[in-house]
RNA sequence: GGCCCCGUCGUCUAGUGGUCCAGGACGUCAGGUUCUCAUCCUGAAGAUCAGGGGUUCGACUCCCCUCGGGGUCACCA
């Protein structure tokens, strides 16, 4: 495999959602699996849409996911600078080359005039083509008006690593703007120059660019550039399955998922498998497996719907796969306030008990609060329990007292607690559904909890008895 | 409207002419694992392969048409 140079080229207009991250991930995977480079480039030529702090936010997102780049605006690189607004001279140079070759000209119309042409085309339900209005003798370009590409419309066939063989007719090609009247290049012009100068070998981008591909092909020819390989990935669709995932429709910032306690392993796995698989029945992929097995050719051509349920399952899976030390290290910052009073060993033990039911770290407080504070006695837990509600309060009270007496002899290790609880089933003649439920409710006051012996073991003698006492008083 | 892309269980998908009355995963439902929740295991329901025509001994797979969805037609990217 030849080393590939790929790039991720976002505009600093806000945060990154899973759709944007997926494009970055695919580009990163292609670079890493081929031993090439992954480049971050900021396409910041639209000053009006630029959002303060977006660049830092994008960089943080990539860092968090571990999509490390070899060249970028903050770390530099041999083909820098990596912000388009810092590369203006390059675009001017190449614009001059096109002007000299007779392949670019000044746009003599006012925006209003162009708008009128557009509306005329719309009125007769025709696509708007600027070249139908191409001026005979355009003025010399003074940099104050848009500079347009003088296209040479023709049919194109080209290969796309994801979409396969594509084609489009000459009618898809037009005289698009290369340099805007504010002196900044358009995306259409700038990305092509940059990709050439930065030696990019694969352009991996979203579906919205497929319609402009013939224009780019025409421009590559005019510039006498060899074009890179193309890979067009379909959009990720929102939950409704129709529109592409977008910020407007509530697509979350990827960093929000990490703030909720999702694992990067799960996120990477999830995003990669949204529209890609290796042809086997494997669902879980590590980062290294993705690097090894990913291929653009196996990326789906149709858009995939974003299914948060699947993400949740996958995250739970990755949480369960972590050893306790690792899990504990990652849980930092997600503990409830009451947990601060307890030492690390205790918190670690609690975490071990809830690991298998934890879907994401933000659930830790609700899953663990009774380990850190006494909850008020809640009689509904008994009244709503289909086994316990059949008993008189006095019967439950005496049952709980028997349990209390036996547990008083325990050293509170898990084996001893287990033995005693089992023995208690014999002496009381009750089913676990009754006896264990009662003790569980009394000592946790929670609707659900880890298994009884382990819970008691972690809670400890003092807390367990305090709570049993409280429950006895309430019964 | 023109051009372009896409269309297999609710969702993500396997499938490149016969081994598919379509396989896996998520989700759902049922049962099991000496309490709850979850995990794990087992099982079930769930897709006339968008529809219609061809080609072929044979089509989810090839061709054509139709329908549906999406993208694009900016001095945004």
Low-confidence stretches: none
- For the record, give the distance between the C-alpha atoms at the N and C termini, rounded to a whole number: 73 Å
CATH topology annotation of the largest domain: Rossmann fold
Q: What overall geometry do the principal axes of the alpha carbons give? A: elongated
The CATH level-2 architecture of the largest domain is identified as 3-Layer(aba) Sandwich
Please indicate the percent range of residues in DSSP E strands (runs of 2 or more).
5-15%
How many DSSP H or I helices? 19
Percent of residues in helices comes to 40-55%
Average predicted confidence as pLDDT: 94
| Strand-pairing-aware structural class | mainly alpha
Order of strands in the sheet with the most strands? Answer: 3-4-7
In sequence order, what are the helices and strands, one letter per element? EHEHHEHEEEEHEHEEHHHEHHHHHHHHHH
Number of domains: 3
Assigned CATH superfamily of the largest domain: HUPs
So what's the CATH class of the largest domain? Alpha Beta
Count of extended strands: 11
What Rg is obtained from the alpha carbons, in whole angstroms?
32 Å
Biggest sheet overview = 3 strands, antiparallel
